[in-house]
Amino acid sequence: MRDVAQAAGVSVSAVSVVLNKKEGARIGADARVRIHDAIARLGYRPNAMAKDLVTGQSRFIGLVADAIASTPFAGQIIHGAQDEAWKHGFVLLVANTEGNQDAEHEAIAMLLEHKVRGVLYSTWYHREVEVPEGLDESDCVLVNCYAAADLPAVVPDEIAGGRDATQLLIDQGHRRIGFINTTTPSPAHDGRLRGYREALAAAGIDLDPALVVEARPEQEGGYDAAALLLDQGVTGIFCHNDRVAMGLYDGLRDRGLKVPGDISVVGFDNQEVIAAHLRPPLSTVALPHYELGVAGVRVLLGLDAPASDGRVLVGCPPVERASIARPAVVPAGDPG
């Protein structure tokens, strides 16, 4: 600042006033122009570390993740958080710990040493977590996860997503709609099942427990579930995720059935490497990873507020492709 002051013909304190944009300071317009010209000419940059020590905060936001940087679709959380942070003048510092607790504690300690504005703590799938030590020393928002601790959490709206997935089939006239759920206890298991039930109830369709089966949340699980639901006379099937739907496609094909001519199929997640490239392309519901990252930063910066339960629910938009059609045979008495 001394070099800038000398080049501009002003005092060091005048340079400090202009750099820190202090309101009410009596610095003439001509002096301000000379200061800015000197800054540009000399290539002056403020000492950010020194400024952070004075203010107690930096222009960094931390993001600690268990694996999302190495999972293609969940990596959108980082992308969304990074874009939103940059929009408000912050830079995102990302630590991908791969579930290693020692690395996680080290990363959190390092972020706190850099006096970050706050920390986003994220997981690659929606679940309950135990909040790591140290996060209580900074503002923190949980992203794609939640905890018993009193921390705001930004999570996907699993219930509405399950409701919308089922509604895609109802809108095409399906009444015998199966649901392949996961065997794994999770918010997705409970929320998507509840959404399925709510959509059926709203359409005046009685819930048949025989149409809900549980399977491993992978391709083999969908393949094995095909026979169980075909025995129940379903015309449409909602799958817990796109991998299950991919296995269901194989199971239907091996039985000589076509999608959607014989059976309509809806997935969940919108994993582009699966959903968009199946034949026919899979109708599904997208997990809003990018939007979760955006919402996490906005809550951290106080731009958006969570609900009374501390949650921010982010919608899961339906993605319609070619795997749904009207049922080949509409049961007698049903609208068709």
Automatic annotation (TrEMBL):
PROSITE patterns per record: HTH_LACI_2 (PS50932)
> Which Gene3D superfamilies does the record associate with it?
3.40.50.2300, lambda repressor-like DNA-binding domains
Tell me if Nucleus is a UniProt keyword of this record.
no
Name assigned to this protein:
LacI family DNA-binding transcriptional regulator
Q: CDD domains, from UniProt? A: PBP1_sucrose_transcription_regulator
One of its Pfam families is LacI
List, for all copies, the residue spans of the domain called HTH lacI-type: 1-55
What SUPFAM superfamilies does its record include?
lambda repressor-like DNA-binding domains, Periplasmic binding protein-like I
One MF annotation (Gene Ontology) recorded for this entry = DNA binding
Q: Which InterPro entries match?
A: HTH_LacI (IPR000843), LacI/GalR-like_sensor (IPR046335), Lambda_DNA-bd_dom_sf (IPR010982), Peripla_BP_I (IPR028082)
